[in-house]
Amino acid sequence: MARHKFNGGIFIKNPYPIDKIKIVPAPLPSKVVLPLQQRIGEEAKPCVRVGERVFTGQIIAKTEDDFCVPIHASISGTVVAIDKQLTPHHSGLKSGCITIESDGKDEWIDTNFGINFLRSSKKTLIEHIQKSGIVGLGGAGFPTHTKLNNLKNCHTLIINGTECEPGISCDDALMQNYPQEVMRGIEILLHICGAKHVIIAIEDDKQVAFEALLKYLHNDKIKLQKIPTKYTSGAEKLLIKALLNIEIPSNSFAVEQGVLCQNVATTKAIFDAVELGRPLVSRIVTVTGSAVETVDNYTVRLGASFAHIVNLSKPNTNLHSVRMGGMMMGVDVDNLETMICKITNCIFVNNRQKPIKTQGCIRCGQCNLVCPVNLLPQQLYWYAKNENIDKSLDYNLLDCIECRCCDYVCPSHISLAAYFVFTKALHANKVKEQNKVNIARERFEYRKYRLARNKKEHAEMMAAKKAQLKQKMADDKTQKDKIAAAIERVKKNTKNNDDTSI
Ligand code: SF4
Ligand code: SF4
Predict the structure, then answer these.
(1) From CA 437, how far away is CA 158, in angstroms rounded?
(2) β-strands 222-227, 259-263: how paired?
(3) Is residue 84 part of a domain?
(4) Average pLDDT over residues 324-345
């Protein structure tokens, strides 16, 4: 088995390294804004009103949608607004949010102080994880209970201890500071999924975290595995391919192949929920970039503004560009008032740079060498540029993980991934339009069928009525004949009687 081999990808040195990784608890924010829309599923519905007092950990919005988790208040205080606001998302669309103003007390709602996982059923634990608002904290935000519910014949549990991108150190900080909690979280997951093996995948430059976890490694099923510190090695499907040599097709999920992959921060959140009875109300966020004096990791309440922790890192007074997530796959945000949500693993604050001029493709082939999913970005680019969706699909456009490795190495500074994202959107739109046409065609066909059926039924009904009428008329004639005969008989009898009496 070709283990620990990652195709393509790039080695990128952390541009803003930290000497000693620590976690700084951020002060309580004076206000939090909590979005109601989650990664998938419908928007949660508020179950509090403006003016209502809420406690930390209290459920303030929920939905019946199985894919969603409830939203919890991350501070105690008063609900001051329920309205639409901009959230950090590629779409740039507004979504419903609940704003809470802090009372400075951080009073928690009564928690049940956790449950004994060894005595709890799989179903109870998954429900508890859902109620505690846990989603993937690695950056994807996929609901954890959905993964667990869809798990089929789990043979391997992979704990992903890799950072998504260079420059992010929140998971490293978490493993160094909470190794025991991570290990306990793994035991809970193991109890739920029943896997035979557990692999904790950790990059080879994270020696301190590796040793911290090693101290609490007391289960023979669990193995710590170092992998190369190479960008995109942490992507779930690539990690599974490298560790287990299992290929997960683009339209399929790892859980369908018996592999459960969980991020280390999610694993710690599961520990907090199950053993301590604490819902997910905070997370660790890295603040880094060329515009801040100190690069650090902060534990911060969800819904606090980016500014709340960026200011702790002392940004300079230049014009900044702000990005949520990594330098490669992150999302640009307009300002520091954006709220921290469950998928905010990093905030990059950089000094604004002059845009780099793009040049024509020189066919150097560099992009083809680094693609971690073995695509041919150079070829794909020509088709994507010409909006040739069919040809782009022939070149496996849908397998592109939008990692931007190809952009990074392109000497002509072409934003190849942006073309691929755009072409994917065109394709999605075409599919949507095609579905609409198909639905319209189906409706038309059904109408035609319905009209023909109605006509046939009407004709059959009329024929039946006609036959009925004919029968009735025939019956009537018989009846009339009978009556006429009876009258005749009566007349005859009367005449006979009259004759006799004379
Ligand atoms: S790296 Fe850039 S210039 Fe080179 S082949 Fe790819 S797109 Fe063309
Ligand atoms: S963005 Fe897509 S095409 Fe470019 S390297 Fe990544 S996966 Fe390959």
Answers:
(1) 43
(2) unpaired
(3) no
(4) 89
